[in-house]
Amino acid sequence: MCSGKGAPGISTTLSGKSGISDKVALLTLAARILSQRRTRVPGIVLRVEGRPHAGRVALITGGGRGIGAATARLLAREGAAVAVAARTEEEISSVAREIEAGGNTAIPVLLDVTDEDSVSAAFEKARAGLGPVDILINNAGTPGVPLPVARTELSDWRRVFDANVTGAFLCAREAMPHMVSGDWGRIVNVSSAAARHPMAGMAAYGASKAALDQLTRVLALEGEPHNVAVTGVYPGVVDTRMQEKSRAFPPDLIGKQLYRMFQGYSDFGMLRAPEEPAELISYLCTSEAARLNGHIIRLEQLEALKE
Ligand SMILES: NC(=O)c1ccc[n+]([C@@H]2O[C@H](COP(=O)([O-])OP(=O)(O)OC[C@H]3O[C@@H](n4cnc5c(N)ncnc54)[C@H](OP(=O)(O)O)[C@@H]3O)[C@@H](O)[C@H]2O)c1
């Protein structure tokens, strides 16, 4: 298993002497290349022909829109019976109806990932309607209000951690026993590059996604003896309600820098379709992807490898 962890904290500012700082710079470069090698996924083929998820039951949190909805549609097309789970009933019902209309199997499941009872009830509903869950996509998430730490309300901090980390923990805790006893399972945690790249104003979001990544690695270790693979995905900047909401924050609330960044994603055509991360997520749920366990995969890395 590969941890997918980056280079250790080697700094170029250790010494003012040019000879030593050159060596440090070289070491830094070498460490970067090595870390890229470790996190790369050579020879990955994103498509597995046919219906690779036939006979599987998948539960997708945040399945009502955005990346979650695209993932639910794709998993269903590729053979899984899917539980489309989130808090907004009309969104999950609409996605499930659309899947059924296409001749595949789906049910809407009301779920608030921050609520332990709601998580248990959702898994029970999925079990009763489709069978025990063998594929879990922990996709539900929120960025919170992007403010500096000094202006962040404790309630907002907790809301972000509850949705992005505790929710994934609660869902994984529900899913693992069946996966372990059935000796097969897949969990994909939808994370963010914000876990590794600090951005002023994004402490709660970045720290929560970093915590999610560590949950991914630990679950991967726990699942490995039982053929349960657990991976993380950095989906890139995706054209969803989350980005729409981020663009709507006024500059006098979140500061000009973040405001420009969010506008720029759209103005410079950097937003990708939700179907792109969905393809990677679906691939990670196949048996063919078994060697990927504990990996945190950036979509951009795969694009580079596909060239
Ligand atoms: N879009 C991007 O650029 C981007 C970049 C990096 C990472 N991500 C990650 O991708 C994931 C999906 O985001 P998205 O961009 O598709 O955003 P989105 O369109 O806003 O979708 C978020 C989904 O999460 C659900 N959700 C939020 N809180 C929930 C809760 N407490 N319980 C159950 N469901 C909840 C929402 O449904 P309800 O509100 O109906 O519950 C919705 O279905 C998130 O984890 C996000 O952090 C997105």
From TrEMBL:
<dbReference type="InterPro" id="IPR020904">
    <property type="entry name" value="Sc_DH/Rdtase_CS"/>
</dbReference>
<dbReference type="InterPro" id="IPR057326">
    <property type="entry name" value="KR_dom"/>
</dbReference>
<dbReference type="InterPro" id="IPR036291">
    <property type="entry name" value="NAD(P)-bd_dom_sf"/>
</dbReference>
<dbReference type="InterPro" id="IPR002347">
    <property type="entry name" value="SDR_fam"/>
</dbReference>
<dbReference type="GO" id="GO:0016491">
    <property type="term" value="F:oxidoreductase activity"/>
</dbReference>
<feature type="domain" description="Ketoreductase">
    <location>
        <begin position="56"/>
        <end position="240"/>
    </location>
</feature>
<dbReference type="Pfam" id="PF00106">
    <property type="entry name" value="adh_short"/>
</dbReference>
<keyword id="KW-0560">Oxidoreductase</keyword>
<protein>
    <submittedName>
        <fullName>SDR family NAD(P)-dependent oxidoreductase</fullName>
    </submittedName>
</protein>
<comment type="similarity">
    <text>Belongs to the short-chain dehydrogenases/reductases (SDR) family.</text>
</comment>
